[in-house]
Design goal:
Blueprint lengths: L7 E11 L6 H12 L11 E10 L2 H16 L5 E9 L4
Antiparallel strand pairs: 1-2, 1-3
């Protein structure tokens, strides 16, 4: 994608989690391990992914739109995962 001279730098934090209806065997295994370690107060753990992306875009809305496409096409499986994006504008250095 071509950049214009007005492009701004953004940092995005992407959180990908399994949908509530999807079983999480990794979370279940961690929960069991914590129970064996004496942490009996943990009732549920869900495992997800955290991804940071630096990108340039004309504005925050354009950055958000591009990140939504990236998540739908590569970072998340929309059939079984949900994602949440936080976009912050960075100082151009």
């Amino acid at each position: 994608m071509a950049q214009s001279a007005n492009a701004r730098l953004y940092n995005a934090k992407v959180y990908v989690t399994l949908r509530p209806s999807v079983l999480d065997p990794a979370g279940k295994a961690v929960r069991s391990g914590l129970g064996h370690m004496g942490y009996d107060n943990i009732s549920k753990i869900r495992i997800g992914k955290y991804i940071e992306v630096d990108l340039t875009a004309e504005d925050e809305a354009s950055a958000q739109q591009q990140l939504d496409k990236i998540c739908d096409q590569l970072l998340a499986n929309p059939v079984i995962e949900d994602y949440r994006i936080e976009v912050l504008e960075q100082e151009n250095v």
